[in-house]
Amino acid sequence: MPKLLLLPGDGIGPEVTDEVRRVAERLTNDLTIDERPFGGASFDALGAPLTDDTLAAAKAADAVLMGAVGGPKWAAAPRHLRPEAGLLALRAGMEVFANLRPAICYGPLADASTLKREVVEGLDLMIVRELTGGVYFGQPRGVETLPDGQRRGVDTQVYTTHEIERVSRVAFELARRRRGKVTSADKSNVMETGQLWREVVTALHAREYADVTLEHILADAAAMVLVRNPRHFDVLVTDNLFGDILSDEAAQLTGSMGMLPSAALGAPGAPGLYEPIHGSAPDIAGQGVANPLAAILSFEMALRWSLGRPDLADRLADAVQAALAAGARTRDIGGQLSTREMGDAVLAHL
Ligand code: NAD
Questions:
Q1: How far is the CA of 157 from the centre of ligand 1 (A)?
Q2: Selection from 224, 107, 99 nearest residue 174 by Cα
Q3: What is the pLDDT of residues 166-201, one digit of tens each?
Q4: Which residues, 6 or more positions from 343, have their beta carbon under 8 angstroms from its beta carbon?
Q5: Does the predicted TM-score (pTM) go above 0.70?
Q6: Whose CA is nearest to atom 10 of ligand 1?
Q7: The pLDDT of residue 114
Q8: Integer Rg of the chain from CA
Q9: How far, in Å, is the centroid of ligand 1 from the Cα of 246?
Q10: Which residue spans within the chain are E strands per DSSP?
Q11: Most buried in the list 86, 97, 176, 263, measured by CB within 10 Å?
């Protein structure tokens, strides 16, 4: 039986993952659900934000669903014991190198976008961001003082063939199960790594994915097309730095933080890490008003990409659509429902 590990975490994390559990239990009996403390909750109970046992359980699961971590209570803890350090260690330990961020515009919420309804309605794009390489990790890096007293900061953008291929492969595989189109964004006009990126993606496409449509775009042009005509894209694959920026831009096309799921995937067959993009929201934690849809939609991604149940993922996506169409709204998207009531609204359409 497939195994799901829930890591509720801190703040609103446990509130939204409770709704995931209810949805999962309604959808299927064919899933073992385990749960462990994580982040600040794990620091309080077990002395570390991520214990060896929890990491081992994550690696042994088929999918891991994290709520959120962090909060003022742990802000003064040493850096390596902060809740956020646990999350970075979990991502590194699970070796998840491809970050998937869908931007879907639900018809009933189209007017919540800052763009016009006719530009965003029906939007369904997937950004695949390289997560463990590039300029955030490249060496050398640092700030030095020069002999003349000036300071000099250095970051290094580095990519290998292997790193580019494995993340591009994720994008091509996703496109095959979607609308069959990959757009690869780089800066091949001005960067050596960009040129290599373009060559490697082109070669992989010719070798293994000729059935998928491939298009290249400069990352700055991609930023423009995202706001002018976002429905141009199906799957958009890019490096760590450009992906960081473009995925936040895409997220804003659709409105609230409380609606946005994400996934991080590693090698084929390895467990994926699924999480809402929002944090622990200390300002509303404990009030039962958080929107659980980002967490529920993260579970929908887990069903699709790690648990081998695209049929149940479709049912869940339809139920969320139907709940929204029927007017279900938490406070962040202009309504009055509590977290539990929003969960109920989704369950009612399953
Ligand atoms: P946040 O995402 O927690 O909150 C930002 C704003 O969005 C808040 O006003 C919050 O109330 C609202 N919001 C977020 N999720 C919501 C939801 N599901 N429903 C309704 N409203 C929602 O970001 P922050 O306030 O910058 O950070 C708070 C803490 O979370 C910090 O400790 C930070 O380090 C941590 N954090 C964790 C993650 C993660 O676990 N992946 C991500 C971001 C921030």
A1: 29
A2: 99
A3: 999 999 999 999 999 999 999 999 999 999 999 999
A4: 18, 19, 22, 23, 292, 296
A5: yes
A6: 281
A7: 84
A8: 20
A9: 20
A10: 3-9, 32-35, 63-68, 98-104, 124-130, 142-145, 151-154, 181-186, 213-218, 235-238, 261-265, 272-276
A11: 86
C-alpha to C-alpha distance for 349 and 132, rounded to whole angstroms? 38
Q: What's domain 107-259's architecture?
A: 3-Layer(aba) Sandwich (3.40)
Most informative mutation of 43, 73, 84, 257 for ligand 1 (most atoms within 8 A of CB): 257
Residue type, 125: L
Active site residues: 136, 187, 220, 244, 248
Rounding to the nearest 10 degrees, give the CA dihedral for residues 316, 320, 322, 327. Answer: 160
CATH code: domain 1-97+266-350 is 3.40.718.10
Amino acid at 9: G
Hey, is 146 helix, strand or coil?
coil
For ligand 1, what atom is nearest to the CA of residue 66? 40
Atom of ligand 1 nearest to the CA of 278: 2
Query: Which ligand 1 atom sits closest to the C-alpha of 281?
Result: 3
For the chain, residues with pLDDT lower than 70 are none
Alpha carbon of 279 to ligand 1 centroid (Å): 3
Q: List, by residue range, all CATH 3.40.718.10 domains of the chain.
A: 1-97+266-350, 107-259
Contact 236, 218 (CB under 8 A): no
Q: In angstroms, rounded to a whole number, what is the distance separating the alpha carbons of residues 310 and 115?
A: 31
Ligand 1 centre distance from Cα of residue 40 (Å): 14
